[in-house]
Amino acid sequence: MSRMEDLFGIHVFNDAVMQKRLPRDTYKALHKTIADGRALKPEVANIVANAMKDWAIEKGVTHYTHWFQPMNGVTAEKHDSFLTPRDGGQIILEFSGKELVHGESDASSFPSGGLRATFEARGYTAWDPTSYAFIKDGVLCIPTAFCSYGGEALDAKTPLLRSMEALNKQAVRVLKLFGRNATRVTPTVGPEQEYFLVDKTLYDQRKDLIFCGRTLFGNKPPKGQELDDHYSGAIKPRVKAFMTELDEELWKLGVLAKTEHNEAAPAQHELAPIYAVTTVATDHNQLTMELMKKVALRHGLVCLLHEKPFAGVNGSGKHNNWSMSTNTGYNLLEPGDDPASSAQFLLFLTAVIRAVDLHADLLRVTTATAGNDHRLGACEAPPAIISIFLGDELTAIVDSLLADEEYHSAAKKDLEIGVTVLPKFPQDNTDRNRTSPFAFTGNKFEFRSLGSSASIADTNVVLNTIVADVLMEFADELEQAADFRSALHDLIVRTLRQHYRIIFNGNGYAPEWLVEAARRGLPNFPNTVDALPHLIDEKNIALFRRQNVFTEKELRSRYEITLEYYTKTVNIEAETCLMMAEKQIFPACARFAGDIARAVKNIRACGLEATAETRLLQMVTTRNARLLDAIDTLRDAISASKQSGDALADASYERNVIIPAMTAIRLVADDLETIVGKDYWPFPTYDDLLFNV
Ligand code: ADP
Ligand code: MG
């Protein structure tokens, strides 16, 4: 066997391991539970837990944890050992079905948005058997969902599972109308992950990287990404060594790490896995981000997952490739090769188009963070306006469908819905529009607005829910139809006409698009504070309730948490900016000015004019004065900010007052960086950071 085959999944309690280690009946019962998305029976759980424990102990594991994803975008774990005392000072190693399936967590420090009062601090975790248990750092990790005692979702996983159920239910209904026998539909996701690598010794000298994950100061180096020589260029040995080890670590955990390449900006890279069921893809993306950071350290590197670590070069995103597949093995966004499948494809495609147009606000909300605000719309990433790219061929088909209706509405054709068989759409890279936030790429949609550090859960909750909701409408209408074919045709044409405005194949970076999008009435929320309030619009509360994904209370709690997170993030940046400006930049510039002043004096003592030195001194001191003013302004702004109890007001203050005050400091400081001697500058600059790996 190859090394890859040897490594793949060795740390995962996957189906093959289950089959080998579980009694036949138990295996079948568990398999059925997973396939049907049901709850596990206690007697089955006990046997599974025991087999899991034995397997883990053979691999040197002593502890287990319920591994969950609270609403802070990362994962949480609390380790318990298998140790159980016995008489006579002995111990045995135990792990019960109850411990596998259900955990308690004193989780009062996790964000709950008021869902869990502190006097009832406990939450509980419940195994999500659709995602395999695995061993990480010698600990058996059980992927779980995290809820309050009242059953309210406190994590990213619970709503994701609910949204997958909603999509399953409605998609199966629609498929039945086409005479398909699929009994389960699951969304699939392949998230491409971008990141930067910087040298650890340089990183350690930058407080902004340490506290904020991005630089708050710095000029673009003489060379950036303008030569396009980094994108998919030869990978440097140190980075290659990192990628090799990362791949191996990911393969051990069953992550299908597939493609690794250099990205556009210097020091920027990407990893893409092969797609998986959404829950698994979500877990695996979290593990990928965690391992990227861990493995980088072993190579003297730091992995930056922030959306915009450096101004002036590209930021990092995450591309969420999304589709739906049936348990009979079909991808529902794959254009079929017979008339019936083509019609079915067009219906699902139409459903996505309607869903995205109706709920572009929600998709935008799921990508809104303080970090991603620096990226979206910055002519390197998709604009903040959501539109759909279909490509010329598919757009031509849509156009002909619409034209048909217009000009020969009475004519019934011997076709399913105006097209016999759809052509295969090109899936290669060359023909793609990279400026579109939501692009059809042959057999899936690629949503490109996600930030690189975010969990993919929220976006997929929304995608699954909005498509489920439209499929529900479609199924309601088509199930009542006297003539399925003509009803189908009418529904598709009517819906495409209604939502045609969301289709845009042009350049999303062009300024004209802003004007055109406004004319089309497409929403444009340029930043987080503009976007987030739409999460709790009446329409969206109703949508999530209708699909049983969020109660109103849960949705409002998420709204509060996300706003608070924004406020806290900007606050940390402001404090860091102030500290660096006051304690590092200003003193360095003053020292430089002092040395120049001495030089002026010494030169004059030799009977010379010191004109140039005097001019330089003036340049520095006038800028120092401006820097000090800007520092005062930010300090006052921070002191004046108060927790008003109104999360939106607090976040607005950060955006309206704090961020401009930080920007003003940066402007002068970056200017000073170009004047003050390199030896005086108190931390590594962009040219050091971006070209030293
Ligand atoms: P590109 O860089 O051109 O966007 P990649 O090949 O890097 O393309 O990434 C495409 C991603 O889409 C991969 O993660 C791939 O596994 C994923 N993908 C392919 N088919 C599907 C599907 N049916 N559902 C979800 N994701 C898919
Ligand atoms: Mg892509």
Secondary structure elements and pairings:
Elements (H helix, E strand, L loop, with lengths): L2 H5 L4 E2 L1 H7 L2 H13 L5 H17 L4 E5 L12 E2 L1 E4 L3 E4 L3 H5 E5 L15 E6 L5 E4 L2 E10 L8 H21 L7 E15 H4 L3 H6 L24 H16 L4 E6 L5 E6 L2 E2 H21 L2 E4 L12 E10 L12 H20 L1 H6 L22 E2 L2 H16 L30 E3 L4 E7 L5 H23 L4 H15 L12 H10 L7 H4 L6 H9 L5 H54 L5 H30 L6 H29 L10 H5 L3
Parallel strand pairs: 2-9, 16-17
Antiparallel strand pairs: 1-8, 2-3, 4-5, 6-7, 7-9, 8-9, 10-12, 10-13, 10-14, 10-15, 11-12, 15-18, 17-18
The protein binds adenosine-5'-diphosphate and magnesium ion.
Task: Write up this protein.
The chain starts with a helix and ends with a helix. The protein folds into three domains: 4-155, Ubiquitin-like (UB roll) (Roll); 163-550, Glutamine synthetase/guanido kinase, catalytic domain (Creatine Kinase, Chain A, domain 2); 566-690, Up-down Bundle (Four Helix Bundle (Hemerythrin (Met), subunit A)). It is α+β, with helices and mostly antiparallel strands. It is built from 22 helices and 18 strands. 48% of the residues lie in helices and 14% in strands. The protein has helices at 3-7, 15-21, 24-36, 42-58, 97-101, 157-177, 200-203, 207-212, 237-252, 278-298, 339-358, 360-365, 392-407, 457-479, 484-498, 511-520, 528-531, 538-546, 552-605, 611-640, 647-675, 686-690; strands spanning 12-13, 63-67, 80-81, 83-86, 90-93, 102-106, 122-127, 133-136, 139-148, 185-199, 257-262, 268-273, 276-277, 301-304, 317-326, 388-389, 438-440, 445-451. Helix 11 crosses helix 14. Strands 10, 11, 12, 13, 14, 15, 16, 17 and 18 form a nine-stranded mixed β-sheet that branches. Adenosine-5'-diphosphate binds next to strand 10, strand 12 and strand 15. Residues 192, 319, 446 line the site of magnesium ion.
